[in-house]
Amino acid sequence: MNLSKLKRKPRHSTNGSAQPVGSVDRRAKGSQVSKPNLIKSRLSKLLLLFSRKNYRNGLSPRSKLAPRSKLAPPGKKSGLFVVMFITVFVIAIFGLFMILSASSHTAFESTGNSWFWFRKQLLFFGLGCVAFIVSLRIPYHVWGKIAKPLLILSFVLMLVVLIPKFGTSVNGARRWIDLRAFVIQPVELVKFSFVIYFSFLMHSRKDRLNDIRLSIRPVMLILAMFVFLALIQPDLGSSIVLGAIGFSILFAVGVPWRSLGLWAAGATGSVLFLSVVSGYRRNRLFSFLDPWDDPLNGGYQTLQSLVAVASGGWLGRGIGAGRAKWGYLPFSHTDFIFAVVAEELGLVGATFLILAFLTLCLGGVLVALRAKDLLGTALASGITGWIASQFFLNVGASMGLLPITGMTLPLVSYGGSSLIITMFGLGILLNVARFSRVP
């Protein structure tokens, strides 16, 4: 008897294909799961995968996938983040109005259009907003990839600006490169590259910060090279800001305080020595100590700035009604814009601007303290030291409390390179704030 004939014949499914008894049609079973539910299940698994990976890297689980909004930056909003975000734009918009007022007379005399400098600054503000959004959206860990190339580019530009064929000289200072379409100031890029490079350098050596050869010495060597190039221009103010950035980062990451203090004392002494040796910087220093000794030359700017500040009173003359900008106070829309603020808005307006900067700087300190890792602490400290040092140098010179160094007021004074790069740096600071620990 042929046993093969006793085998059961396979049943046929409704679609005509053969299927053994007791088996399950996988295609039929899969067809019962709705397509939206299947996609939702796979996206959930993918989101869980990214969440675990990002938490291991110190990032937010929403930094790679953000289904709510394509424009939403990574991390979480906090009260500190919101306050700093608003403060940045309040200062920047306030600066636009003050540039329109402070530059109207100079712009009309030089170009015949009172709106000339304001329109250019408005364009720079738009580019700065783009830079701010880009740096706010990108996690701050990514910037290490460009740290070294950016530092090399900054060094090359600092050399190029010293060449008479490329560098533009204004009042004896060669600090700008004129590209016809726009003018760039290389030292502004140096400030940003210092923050990025030093922060990632300290982060890569976080287990060996007590070794001075690997922590303080490399920073001091790079700092000395760039400060030397800045002093040749000459640009004493930027040299001080570069030093403030480097020492802020070293202090925040926890290098030995005694060694850092010795290096700081040596650097300060060197800058003072160079200030006395150079005739240009020596005149600036002694004019600050006694501006009445040379009221028509070395002390002229200081005295005119003090007159403008004193003329403001409590509420000021009114925006646009100031007199210092009518040829009495040179560089009223750049180096001495704070004096115009005090004259036109009085003590109330000047105090408002000072409190806004103090809010921004204090917020940067809190971001550095609450950062999730050493890299975030270093970045926040460097950017805060950058903004704070420029603010104190500018306001101090306008009030006659510090020597005039030609330092602009961040976000307020006229200048495309300064505004765009400063807003880019502040975007990184707020990105660190979004990943900070909530107390």
Task: Walk me through what this model shows.
The protein has 439 residues and is mainly alpha-helical. The protein has helices spanning 26-31, 35-56, 79-111, 116-137, 147-160, 186-204, 216-232, 236-253, 257-277, 279-289, 300-311, 337-370, 374-398, 416-434; strands at residues 11-12, 18-19, 167-170, 173-178, 183-184. It has a three-stranded antiparallel sheet with strand order 3-4-5. Strands 1-2 form a two-stranded antiparallel ribbon. Helix 4 packs parallel to helix 14 (416-434). The longest helix is centred in the C-terminal third of the chain and has 34 residues, at 337-370.
Compute the CA-based radius of gyration.
30 Å
Query: How many helices does DSSP assign?
Result: 14
Q: What structural category characterises the helix and strand content?
A: mainly alpha
Counted beta strands: 5
- Spans of at least 5 consecutive residues with low confidence: 3-33, 46-72
**Tally of discrete structural domains:** 1
Blueprint (SSEs and pairs):
Layout: E1 11-12, E2 18-19, H1 26-31, H2 35-56, H3 79-111, H4 116-137, H5 147-160, E3 167-170, E4 173-178, E5 183-184, H6 186-204, H7 216-232, H8 236-253, H9 257-277, H10 279-289, H11 300-311, H12 337-370, H13 374-398, H14 416-434
Antiparallel strand pairs: 1-2, 3-4, 4-5
Helix pairs in contact: 3-4, 3-12, 3-14, 4-14, 5-6, 6-8, 6-13, 6-14, 7-8, 8-9, 8-13, 9-10, 11-12, 12-13, 12-14, 13-14
Write a concise keyword list for the protein shown above.
mainly alpha, 4% strand, 439 residues, 14 helices, 3-stranded antiparallel sheet, two-stranded antiparallel sheet, disordered N terminus
